[in-house]
UniProtKB/TrEMBL annotation:
SUPFAM superfamilies documented for this protein: PLP-dependent transferases (SSF53383)
Top-level taxon in the UniProt lineage: Bacteria
N6-(pyridoxal phosphate)lysine modified-residue sites: 214
Protein name per Swiss-Prot or TrEMBL: Cystathionine gamma-synthase
UniProt record similarity statement: Belongs to the trans-sulfuration enzymes family.
Keyword Lipoprotein: no
Organism from which the protein derives: Kocuria flava
Length: 400
């Protein structure tokens, strides 16, 4: 299947196609057979051959490729400025495939500490028995990152920025430099920013991972993940080949229906993200003025320590806001359980507002360890609902 996968640099003087045009059209051409404007869901496991190994459109069996999945992969690759994207059944499945594609027993991973709890669990509990070691580091402290690298053994630096749930901002270009000096790859989990606000491959990263369950899908109705790679080589071959092999050979692929839902969501990413972050900025500023709130963590606030860096490497500050309660743990729990519009739930990035208590929900697996998150912290996934309704809900929960 030939689809344009990159919106590469334009020749001097030429306009570069806009993000939303690419989101709507990349990989999403009308069905050549029927003229259907929307590419259909190819709900099939296998494809008829016109002779032995004579394939139509390159498709043989849906674990290897499926037109609906390929269409979504082309769309996401274009938006991340990657050469190839690979869609998986979940974000964790995507991470697992990438790590197993690049790591060998004895290798070491430097892991941004303030990140998705499940990534930490994957590396320290699923991969550790296969002799993969890891060191957590504060992603905003480049000296700590440098000190954690073990030359010749560290093969992957893994970064999440903005981080979860503390919304720290790490310098992707500097991390890339440290990785490449050490002969390692830089992987960036771009789930929080989404390709609309940040393109790590353009900042020097070798691979990007997404939980497409979040902003890419955008409607809390599908689970999915993706790996997007640029031109990086690994172990003497293109990194894309190693990831593609892993996707096919281990088989945790995104199904056609899920790929279709993710692709449909991705078309409106820019519109949703604009509203998410407009609401988030307003809510973060409002929380600053509340006596119940001890600290607001949102990179869009000028007092946030990563504000300038975020302004330089991102195109906006995103829709996630965390805050700490002056009265401590009990107050944080009460707020998390006290909203009505904001649903008490893990996950994020959907059109509806969600509230969570990270210490015991998203980050329960690291409670009691060095990676534990503050017990007075509440995290908001700010939805696209009218901001006045959101403020009213938060006001009620805070003053209860
Ligand atoms: C949710 C999430 C993941 C895991 O993705 P799943 O789709 O739940 O498997 C990874 N990274 C981040 C930042 C996430 O928010």
């Amino acid at each position: 299947m030939t689809t344009t996968t990159t919106a590469g640099p334009a020749p001097t003087g030429a306009r570069v196609q806009g993000f939303t045009t690419t989101a709507v059209h990349a990989g999403q051409a009308p069905d050549p057979l029927t003229g259907a404007v929307i590419p259909p869901v190819h709900q099939t496991s296998t494809f008829v051959q016109d002779g032995i190994n004579v394939l139509r459109g390159g498709h043989e069996y849906s674990r290897g490729s499926n037109p609906t999945r390929s269409a979504f992969e082309a769309q996401l690759a274009a938006l991340e400025h990657g050469e190839r994207a690979f869609a998986f059944a979940s974000g964790i499945a995507a991470e697992d495939a990438l790590l197993r594609a690049v790591l060998r027993p004895g290798d070491h991973v430097v892991l941004g500490a303030d990140g998705y709890g499940g990534t930490n669990r994957l590396i320290t509990r699923v991969l550790a028995p296969w002799q993969i070691a890891s060191t957590p580091v504060d992603g905003t402290d480049l000296d700590a990152v440098r000190a954690a690298v073990r030359p010749g053994t560290t093969r992957v630096l893994w970064l999440e920025t903005p981080s979860n749930p503390l919304l720290g901002i790490a310098d992707v270009a500097s991390w890339a430099e440290l990785a490449h000096e050490a002969g390692a790859l830089l992987v960036v989990d771009n789930t929080f920013a989404s390709p609309y606000l940040q393109n790590p491959l353009l900042l020097g990263a070798d691979a990007v991972v997404h939980s497409t369950t979040k902003y890419v899908g955008g409607h809390s109705d599908v689970l999915g993940g993706a790996v997007v790679v640029g031109a990086a080589q690994w172990l003497g071959a293109p990194l894309a080949e190693a990831v593609g092999f892993q996707q096919f050979a281990a088989g945790a692929v995104a199904g056609p229906q899920d790929s279709w839902l993710a692709a449909r969501g991705l078309k409106t990413l820019s519109l949703r993200m604009e509203r998410h972050q407009q609401n988030a900025q307003r809510i973060a500023e409002w929380l600053l003025g509340r006596p119940e709130v001890a600290q607001v963590l949102y990179p869009g606030l000028p007092e946030h320590p990563g504000h300038d860096l975020a302004a330089a490497q991102m195109r906006g500050f995103g829709g996630m806001v965390s805050f700490r309660l002056a009265a401590g743990e009990a107050a944080a729990r009460a707020v998390a359980e006290g909203t009505r519009l904001y649903a008490l739930s893990v996950s994020l990035g959907g059109v509806e507002s969600l509230i969570c208590y990270p210490s015991e929900m998203t980050h329960a697996t690291v409670r009691g360890t060095a990676l534990a998150v503050p017990v007075d912290l509440v995290r908001l996934s700010v939805g696209i609902e009218d901001v006045e309704d959101q403020l009213e809900d938060l006001e009620r929960a805070l003053s209860a």
